[in-house]
Amino acid sequence: MRLLTGLASALLLSGCAGIVPKSADPVPPSSGGEAFTSAMMAGVKEGPFVSSLSISQTDAEAALRSFIESCPTLLRREDKSGLTQPSDWQKACAAAPRNPGTADTFFSAYFETAIVGSGQAFATGYFEPEIAGCRTRKPGCEVPVYALPGDLIRQWPADMAQSERTGRPPLGRINENGVFVPYFERSEIDAGALEGRGLAFAWAKDPVEMFFLQIQGSGRLALDDGGVMRIGYAGQNGRGYTGIGGVMRERGLLGDGPGQYAGSMQGIMQYIRENPQDGKELMHLNKSWIFFTELTGDGPLGSLGIPVRRESSVAVDPRFVPYGAPVFLDLDRNIADGLWIAQDTGGAIKGPNRFDTFWGAGEDARTIAGGMSGRGQALILLPRGTVKRLNSQ
Asked: Where is the signal peptide (predicted)?
């Protein structure tokens, strides 16, 4: 998730790389599809008629607005899931702005449902945090918000054999000896590795809040002058993500027993504040560092480069769900039931039927996202005729 996304709970409480808050039971259930690398490998079958789904008019209207914003991407971007081609979306995207009939009948008219793999879904939640900050450094506001450094580059290490060079080169830097090495990790950056380079364009007041905003991947700074600065993901240092909640669980610090802390973002923050030295060492186990940029337009932006919307946008693994596609969730957390549009992704959002729902900003968003851990069924809405075509190939 460009918001990194989602995902505090899943990321904090798992060992995955990537993003918001989690419930006491944040570990995704096994779907049996961990070895699959695409929707086609997992298997695709036709689901129930769209008209049979419980979609409220309000839900459909919000989803339609987000779908319209996604159409430019749908019409030009390669679908990594292998389910669709850009041309498949032309009719729906052409009709969407005209919205023939009501929004719910629009989805019935242009889409069919598909079940990927078992269809058994696991959903978490993420939100856009707001923390206290300032544009210039001052006492009590000294946690740097760094822009992407110019010396962060991708390059193959000189000692890596050609046969091992697959995919993209790793991120790193050229050190003082002219050797490509991994980029500075969290503990080194906290110790001042990037100070004095003009990279800090804002400052936060609370290092703990800033740590969690980095996990989210975007957020807002409530400035001391009364303004608000929205910051978004610009890049990452190339170091692996460690979910500190998972470490705390292994150490017996999370749970319902005496002296244990709640298995949620709030519980993890409480532990760090009450145990500052151990908490700092715990945060340093997560070597990943997120760099930001100031956002001046609508936002926050998902991985498609378009704004994600509360209760409409969902982060997905694009190998299993086409970016921009509608998704219908029916979970044991009823608040997350309904239509969503796939507009984001995240390091912890991996595999078929894994989702991270977006809840906007504010305290209610933090609370809902922090407790979101829903299981149920997922249906992917595809242009009519897609499933039959796929299964005839």
From this structure: 1-19
